[in-house]
Design goal:
Chain lengths: 450, 489, 251
């Protein structure tokens, strides 16, 4: 490169820190493609509001610092972290467990037994040390296929590809059903660090996989947690994915799921965002013929938090059905953002796409932004989206109160009911119970201002 | 009344190549040099005998425009416009301010006759029963005639060309021009501020209900000529006005630029209803020629309980880039946007609205119906923004798209921003193809495929058509039918 | 039991006075019917008593067994024993009917310093009441009023009344939108709840409900005031003559 890109001339403090961090760690990190990925990020830096995809989530201003990349924690730190994190909520779901601390796999804390024949789990870190190449434009060439959906060009994806230290590689052989779910449990040691993970999930044709992801970090610590999950779901296969984000109040969480769903396959995706000062959750899904996508999200924000759910659903095969429902409860001075785009390729005749985004504002200074888009290039389609923003319904409040239920309890009941449309739809009973408990805890934790 | 009087029957066997208003008129004109520079801005200002402050205003706009970039966020694609290849001022030669119709070039009158625009007041009276409409006719860059002025003057209503208003009512123009669409609002609005040549001016005094519909008719005739009109409507407290706008241009191979600015101001309890039927030449079926229509329209509900309602039927232009908007500043003010956008051939439409809720208990209603056929791209782009202080605001958007044929695209891009819990914002959108069952039902009752499409489409856009004054609605309905001809086969 | 004195109330946002000096005394065990032309203020009276937001009481008092109702929020009024059967019961998606009933009953019991009801006791109570009102298990499982027919919504209101056991039941045009069979079920439900220490205020536009719920007193409400009171025969008279005379009288 002979010319310094214009944007490089004036770097923010955070951008300068990210540049320095990459220079410091690139020699230590194995795997190809990191410099290319970093260059994609560095050209324009942190995206600002004039970048359409970041219109409502201006990382240029919201991200003011960038902690150092996390080093591999010592076994003592890892054990102490696991101890401090307490009981694993998903234990009741009977899941195998892949534990990462600050973005590094900790085999001693993990339990990967009993997933069944034809199911393999390994760590990205071990693969890297073994000289296996996972990088480049994407794992298993997936990046090539995701380029159209915008994932490949996304600056957060670029950062994850440049810095990733570890992650899960889950392969489910064709026709194989996992004997138990796999939980990916992300813990934070409490040090102010940036953690970067990258997962690969490959479900072979006709296979079935269930993955539960939990992100937890303590309050009061600025942690930047970056995650990129790339998944391919083979023809006729099923993947169920639950992403439970319980970050601390000073954490920043950036998650991207990039998934290619082959013909006749099913993806059932749930994301619950609680905590985190700043959260951006991106889903890029490419749907083949006759696929079924369900993506649902519950966002609960308070304080001065900012939570963004961004969804790009790309129909590239005929007769696929997609259903997206995102709900957010926004308290205090927090802000929720929903961006969802259903794109229908000219060949995707018979597409049936429906997207709903609803926000309830619980305080005078809460804000919600929504941008539900339809981008349709095929004519034989039935697509719709709906979005609403408002307070809890006064008529419902009055009805409940007129039956003797006090005001505070009325609000709780209505918030729970509002989010219930998302949580009730989670099929697995023990998983649903965990999510409902999360919602309940959040509601109970609301600080009554009045 | 109608932009167009001839009926669809007279334009049988039309495909998109056969644009009904594609005749060219041979009228001598007075033009500025080709291209743009301070000299051209000065030339235009001098031609209009403008006061010094107006020239300064234009020059300021021009200098600012030089520093700006063309916007690229809309879903429209077109080759780079060479702003030096356009004539910015073209006036029919004989019009040094006609005192009456008798002084207007007979050739010009013929043009309007052909278009079905009633410029002769008695003709209008003889024409449609009870429907009196005052017309301001703008030919290329200048207003050629305004009808019914005396009758309006009795009520204190001012309806004239904006150049005349600048001379006769400079205090009003100076006070309001640029107060809704600032000079630097956007690239095309800034260009317009520098070079606008004419347009309509309307002033409705306090408490007056304008006794007739006001109408402006725009026609681009000259080759390589841009049309940059500027319309300013002021409705004082408690007044009401309904204003209609129609547009056509001849059929040409090259693209022509139209960059208008419309500013509306409604004071306490005032209401402005602004209706547009836009039928600029859309280009041929391969996308050759056609008008580039980059328009900035904005209404300011400045007073409490004021109301501004935009209704548009967009069937023409190769490119439409247009977002009639409302600033809901007054408490209890209301904004409405009713839109039908039809695209066929290679047309590209990127249109919608912005509703900015600033005052308490403000309301907005958006109903958009997009119909894409052929190889066209039709985008609704809209914004509803509720300020923290706009307590009790309500907004409802309904946005439906219909696809006809496999080569077209329909897109919906709404931005919703709410900053107070007491506001309620709702948005719904659907996209679907024209129903096979409905088509079959109609055809089995003896309708041709095209008639069936027209019938179904008219049902689809009904809610919006009902917002138009009756005669306009009838015309618009025909126009939609004509625009979609050739879309089923 | 219920004493309303010189009650004046207006719609807050409009400043328009609807109730203009209304007086009414209801004793335990009595059924009072309030009839009147459209716009007389019938629904406003029920809303003001239940504490619906949006109304401003400018003058007068309303007490239940000496407790000032107007100073309480809607939940406290319910705990004090007021129950409004809504003309248009709202749908509450996501809140199960049983969950709701139990939450309401326990909230009222807590407010009165009573202990929460045990789940088996509650279910027994619920099953009994639901059976009498022909309310299916399915209706109990569904969210409150969601997808209910007009008749089902009204029966559900009476079910709540049966579970919550209020002192004062206000029925706001409960007969509207009901066919005759549904009306009978609702009326039987109400009659089953009659007791010496419970009173009813039945607001209706038509006499036909009063064939099934026979009132002790009938009052004509016009232009915000009670303009005439009498026995059940007054309702028949109104049915025959219409409200025209009373509209005049009030003016």
């Amino acid at each position: 490169m002979t010319l310094v890109p214009a944007a490089l001339k004036r770097r923010t403090r955070a951008e300068t820190a990210i540049d320095a961090a990459f220079a410091a760690v690139r020699a230590d990190l194995p795997g190809a493609g990191r410099s290319e990925a970093f260059a994609r990020f560095a050209t324009d830096g942190l995206p600002h509001r004039r970048i359409e995809a970041y219109h409502f989530t201006d990382l240029h201003t919201l991200v003011t610092a960038a902690p150092e990349p996390a080093r591999r924690p010592s076994p003592e730190v890892a054990r102490a972290t696991a101890l401090a994190a307490g009981v694993d909520a998903f234990a009741a779901a009977g899941a195998a467990r892949f534990v990462l601390v600050d973005g590094w796999f900790c085999p001693d804390l993990s339990d990967l037994a009993g997933l069944g024949d034809g199911v393999s789990v390994s760590s990205v870190g071990a693969g890297l040390l073994g000289g296996r190449q996972l990088a480049g434009r994407g794992l298993d060439g997936l990046g090539e296929r995701l380029a159209d959906g915008g994932a490949a060009a996304d600056p957060l994806v670029a950062l994850a590809c440049a810095f990733y230290t570890d992650g899960v590689v889950l392969r489910v052989a064709p026709g194989t059903r996992m004997a138990r779910p796999l939980e990916i449990r992300h813990l934070a040691s409490g040090a102010s660090v940036s953690a970067h993970v990258r997962h690969l999930i490959v479900v072979g044709d006709g296979g079935a996989a269930e993955v539960l992801e939990t992100h937890a970090s303590p309050d009061g610590v600025e942690i930047h947690a970056h995650g990129l999950t790339e998944a391919t779901i083979g023809a006729g296969a099923t993947l169920s994915l639950v992403d439970r984000q319980c970050e601390g109040d000073q954490a920043m969480r950036f998650s991207t799921l990039a998934v290619a769903v082959a013909d006749d396959a099913v993806l059932d995706h749930t994301v619950v965002t609680l905590g985190a000062r700043l959260a951006r959750t991106q889903v890029f899904a490419r749907l083949g013929a006759r696929t079924q996508l369900t993506s649902r999200g519950a966002t609960l924000v308070r304080g001065r938090a900012h939570a963004d759910a961004t969804l790009v659903v790309d129909h590239v095969g005929e007769d696929a059905v997609s259903r997206e429902l995102y709900k957010s409860a926004v308290d205090d001075e927090a802000r929720s953002v929903f961006q969802g785009r259903i794109r229908v390729d000219p060949v995707a005749q018979g597409t049936d796409g429906r997207m709903g985004a609803h926000a309830v504002l619980l305080s005078d200074r809460a804000e919600a932004m929504a941008k539900p888009e339809l981008e349709i290039f095929a004519d034989d389609v039935a697509c719709a989206h709906g979005a609403t923003v408002g307070a809890l319904d006064d008529a419902l409040k009055f009805y409940l109160m007129s039956r003797g239920i006090p005001a505070a309890e009325t609000e709780k009941l209505l918030i729970r009911a509002f989010l219930g449309e998302v949580t009730d739809a989670v099929a697995s009973e023990p998983v649903r119970a965990v999510i409902e408990a999360d919602v309940e805890a959040w509601i109970d934790g609301r600080e009554r201002s009045a | 009344m109608a932009a167009v009087k001839e009926t669809v029957d007279q334009v049988r066997a039309i495909d998109v190549d056969q644009y009904k208003y594609g005749f060219e008129s041979d009228i001598a004109s007075d033009r500025a040099r080709k291209g743009l520079g301070e000299d051209v801005v000065r030339f235009i200002s001098a031609k209009k005998n403008e006061p010094e402050w107006m020239l300064e205003w234009r020059l300021d706009a021009y200098r600012r425009w030089l520093t700006m970039d063309e916007p690229t966020w809309a879903r429209v694609e077109y080759p780079q416009i060479d702003f030096q290849e356009i004539y910015y001022y073209s006036a029919p030669k004989s019009t040094a301010g006609p005192k009456s119709l008798d002084e207007v070039d007979p050739e010009l009158l013929k043009v309007y006759e052909k278009l079905g625009i009633p410029l002769r007041e008695q003709a209008v009276l003889a024409g449609v029963e009870g429907a009196k409409i005052a017309v301001d006719a703008v030919f290329d860059s200048v207003s050629v005639v305004t009808t019914f002025r005396e009758e309006l003057a009795k009520k204190g209503v001012i309806f004239c060309s904006i150049s005349e208003a600048m001379r006769e009512h400079p205090e009003l123009v100076r006070k309001y021009i640029g107060s809704v669409v600032p000079v630097t609002d956007n690239y095309y609005a800034t260009l317009n501020s520098a070079v606008f040549s004419d347009g309509s001016f309307v002033y409705i005094p306090e408490g007056v209900r304008c006794p007739m519909e006001l109408s402006t008719y725009f026609r681009i005739n000259e080759r390589n000529t841009g049309q940059f009109e500027r319309t300013l409507i002021i409705a004082e407290k408690g007044s009401y006005v309904s204003y209609l706008e129609g547009c056509t241009a001849p059929q040409r191979d090259e693209n022509q630029l139209h960059a208008a600015v419309v500013e509306l101001i409604a004071m306490d309890d005032a209401e402005i209803k602004y209706s547009t039927v836009q039928n600029w030449y859309p280009g041929d079926k391969d996308g050759k020629g056609g008008i580039y229509n980059f328009v900035t329209k904005r209404g300011d509900c400045r007073g409490d309980r004021s109301k501004i309602s935009w209704t548009q039927v967009e069937t023409g232009s190769a490119i439409t880039w247009k977002y009639p908007s409302c600033i809901l500043r007054g408490d209890d003010s209301q904004g409405e946007f009713w839109s039908i956008a039809v695209s066929n051939g290679r047309q590209q439409v990127d249109s919608g609205t912005k509703m900015l809720h600033l005052g308490k208990n403000t309301k907005s209603r958006i109903v958009s119906k997009g119909i894409s056929a052929g190889h066209s791209q039709n985008t609704y782009r809209g914004q509803v923004s509720v300020n923290r202080k706009a307590t009790g605001a309500r907004s409802f958007t309904n946005c439906d798209s219909l696809l006809i044929g496999q080569g077209c695209g329909a897109h919906t891009v709404p931005y919703i921003e709410s900053r107070t819990p007491s506001a309620k914002v709702e948005h719904e959108a659907t996209t679907s193809k024209i129903s096979d069952d409905q088509l079959f039902y109609c055809i089995s009752r003896g309708l041709s495929a095209e008639e069936a499409v027209a019938l179904i489409v008219n049902g689809f856009v009904r809610d919006v058509l009902q917002q138009l004054p009756m005669e306009f609605a009838v015309e618009a309905q025909k126009l939609i039918g004509v625009s979609l001809e050739g879309s089923v086969g | 039991m219920l004493e309303i004195t010189n009650l004046h109330a207006e719609i807050e946002s409009e400043g328009r006075e609807i109730l203009r000096g209304l007086d009414l005394v209801v004793k335990p065990g009595e059924i009072h019917a309030i009839m009147g032309p459209n716009g007389a203020g019938k629904s406003t009276l029920s809303h003001v008593l239940a504490g619906k937001p949006g109304y401003l009481v400018t003058e007068g008092t309303a007490t239940l067994d000496g407790v000032d109702l107007l100073g309480l929020d809607p939940a406290a009024r319910a705990a004090a024993g007021v129950f409004l059967a809504f003309q248009y019961p709202v749908e509450i998606p996501g809140v199960g009917n049983v969950t709701f009933l139990k939450a309401a009953l326990n909230a009222q019991r807590r407010a009165r310093g009573e202990g929460e009801i045990s789940t088996p006791d509650f279910m027994r109570l619920l099953r009994g009441a639901a059976g009498r009102l022909e309310i299916s298990q399915d209706m109990l499982k569904r969210p409150v009023n969601v997808g209910f027919s007009g008749g089902e919504k009204k029966r559900n209101e009476i079910l709540q009344m049966a579970i919550l056991q209020p002192k004062l039941c206000i029925l706001d045009e409960t007969d509207s939108g009901l066919d005759i069979d549904a009306l009978k079920v609702v009326a039987e439900g109400v009659n089953g709840l009659r007791s010496p220490d419970r009173a009813f205020v039945v607001i209706t536009h038509y006499q036909r409900l009063l064939d099934h719920i026979v009132p002790d007193f009938v009052h004509v409400l016009a232009k915000g005031r009670i303009v005439k009171s009498g026995g059940p025969e007054l309702a028949l008279e109104l049915e025959a003559k219409g409200y025209a005379d009373f509209a005049e009288e009030a003016a």
